[in-house]
Design goal:
Order of helices and strands: HHEEEEEEE
Structural class: alpha+beta
Strand order of the largest sheet: 4-5-6-7
Number of helices: 2
Largest sheet: 4 strands, antiparallel
Number of strands: 7
């Protein structure tokens, strides 16, 4: 490959620029590595005082301890240790290493003199439960006794006077608008009206 005069000038300029770039890169790498220790410290750490801790503004508020500023100084502060040694534990006297319930003091109430108790009002026996049957229709043929349709939930019963329905309810009397039913277990009588639907 032949280098002409114009190509030779371009090559010399490129080599000179390359040498300058390598020199600047080497200077930048070596200057940031060991010459300045401040460059390696983050900016947030520069605002913290490096000297010994100076007490902050002392404001005495009862038994609260006095605050001091934090410092990066690694020396041992004996004055601060002596203030913490004087602190005494003033607990409730409970042993934290034993599993027992905390004793709560009972409040003392004034003694109430017992007086005559009001007599409870006599109440009668509770009313019997209602009969859960529903009367909703008739079934009759000429020459036969009148029959009725009764339902309880999903169950349907067909009965005439004197029959016992669901082994518990006796049909006493059938009228055109209602049926008289007796609960055999509780002797409760109830009239069931004819309902539509």
């Amino acid at each position: 490959m032949k280098l002409g005069a114009e190509n030779r000038n371009k090559l010399i300029i490129a080599v000179v620029l390359m040498v300058v770039a390598v020199g600047l890169l080497a200077q930048w790498l070596f200057s940031s590595g060991g010459t300045s220790s401040a460059a390696s410290i983050p900016p947030s750490a520069l605002s913290i005082p490096v000297g010994p801790a100076t007490p902050a503004k002392k404001i005495n508020r009862g038994n609260k301890p006095v605050k001091t500023e934090r410092s990066l100084d690694p020396t041992l502060r004996l004055d601060l240790l002596s203030t913490s040694e004087g602190t005494k534990y003033e607990g409730k006297g409970r042993n934290i290493f034993r599993a027992e319930a905390e004793v709560i003091p009972q409040a003392k109430f004034p003694a109430i003199k017992p007086g005559p108790m009001p007599s409870p009002e006599p109440q009668g026996p509770p009313p019997p439960p209602p009969i859960p049957l529903r009367f909703y229709g008739f079934a009759s043929r000429p020459g036969e006794p009148k029959r009725i349709f009764l339902s309880q939930g999903d169950d349907v019963f067909i009965a005439k006077e004197g029959d016992i329905v669901d082994r518990r309810y006796k049909i006493l009397q059938i009228s055109p608008t209602s049926v008289e039913v007796e609960d055999v277990l509780t002797n409760n009588r109830q009239s069931l009206p004819l309902t539509q639907g």
